[in-house]
Design goal:
The chain is of the alpha/beta class. It is built from eleven helices and 14 strands. The strands form two sheets. An eight-stranded mixed β-sheet has the order 8-9-10-7-11-12-13-14. A six-stranded parallel β-sheet has the order 3-2-1-4-5-6, with helices on both faces. The longest helix is centred in the last third of the chain and has 20 residues, at 319-338. The model has no long low-confidence stretch (mean pLDDT 96).
């Protein structure tokens, strides 16, 4: 093993959909990362997929001396206590989104990481989606001028609510907690901190017990950013729309990496993340041209994490970015509850760090 692939031993907490579909395959496909233990009650499933991995409970995993980094992919309300326990035990920590249930909880975890001198990060894998990388390339290249109106949609068609913790009442449940952190993170990466947030949540499906529709507007001085998620969109999907001073950009289809993972394709295999859906650009005269969409590669998150842990690069999602996303998530929840435009509850120091 080369110096750049210095072994980092990983313990994964949770082997539900996210742990099984995203984290375990990406960890095992990343040079220099070794998956040594998984905390799960589904030992049969774990051993079928990863025969050499130890299956333990979360307390045992956190106590293990042969684990360098703990990845937390358990229900949202467990994120803060598990992260603090793992950091205190001397591990680096990765938390699946949402990082915690609130900005206040996020600050507590970040403070613990700082005190323990450990890396803490959040799995914002959709920074490396093909659709996002494509529109980022166009916007940063100035091809549509200064963006005045931007829409980011994650729409699905699941007309019948499922009996699972994400859709049952409880802390951390609902569509906004599920999709909001991704939508907010991408917007912040493109445009920085908004002045305020206005949001509306709804339960639109028969039998819904948590929000299954979210419409959030981020206010900037000369820009509006719309973040939208729905579980009742059977067709006519458009992932991104951006209207600028020199033209318009449209990206219809979404990144395919999640579908590839569900199909059992190994991350990084031939064809991984390739996107055949071109972006559409419209100039000031309304003329349409196509632009190829770059391939996505969510493996970059874990590759950059390995570099950070081995001292060869920065944390892919550092604490100030974690706190900013949680501030948007919190502000949207408060706005939806009160019906009022809500400012981000970031401190002056946190804003300065971001800027």
């Amino acid at each position: 093993m080369s110096a750049a692939e210095e072994a980092v031993r990983v313990g994964l907490i949770g082997y539900g959909y996210v742990g099984k579909t995203f984290h375990a395959p990406m960890i095992t496909a990343t040079p220099g990362l070794e998956l040594v233990a998984i905390a799960s009650s589904r030992a049969v499933d774990v051993h079928a997929d990863h025969p050499g991995v130890h299956v333990v409970d979360s307390d045992e995993l956190i106590a293990r001396a042969d684990v360098d980094v703990v990845v937390i992919a358990s229900p949202n309300d467990t994120h803060r206590p598990l992260a603090e326990a793992a950091l205190t035990a001397g591990h680096h920590v990765v938390v699946d989104k949402p990082f915690t249930l609130s900005l206040q909880d996020a600050r507590a975890v970040v403070d613990t990481a700082d005190r323990c001198q450990r890396i803490v990060s959040v799995f914002q894998n959709r920074r490396w989606d093909s659709d996002y990388l494509g529109i980022k390339e166009v916007i940063e290249g100035g091809l549509i001028g200064e963006v005045a109106h931007f829409e980011s949609h994650i729409d699905r068609f699941r007309p019948s609510p499922r009996d699972r913790w994400r859709e049952n009442p409880g802390p951390g449940a609902g569509l906004w907690f599920d999709l909001g952190p991704h939508l907010a993170d991408q917007a912040l990466q493109l445009f920085g901190l908004p002045e305020a947030v206005t949001a509306d949540f709804g339960c639109l499906r028969a039998g819904s017990r948590t929000d299954d529709w979210a419409h959030v507007i981020l206010d900037y001085p000369r820009r509006r950013v719309v973040l939208h998620g729905s579980m009742l969109a059977a067709g006519a999907h458009t992932r991104f729309i951006a209207h600028g001073t020199a033209g318009t950009l449209v990206k219809h289809r979404s990144d395919i990496q999640e579908d590839q993972l569900k199909a059992g394709i190994v991350p990084g295999a031939p064809g991984w993340g390739e996107d055949s859906d071109d972006m559409l650009l419209y100039d000031a005269a309304g003329r349409q041209t196509s632009r190829p969409t770059p391939p996505g590669n969510q493996l970059r998150y874990y590759r950059e994490l390995h570099q950070a842990i081995t001292g060869r690069g920065p944390n892919p999602v550092p604490p100030h970015q974690i706190l900013a996303v949680m501030a948007v998530v919190d502000a949207a929840r408060l706005s939806a509850q009160t019906g009022r435009r809500t400012e981000l509850a970031l401190s002056p120091e946190e804003r300065t760090h971001w800027n």
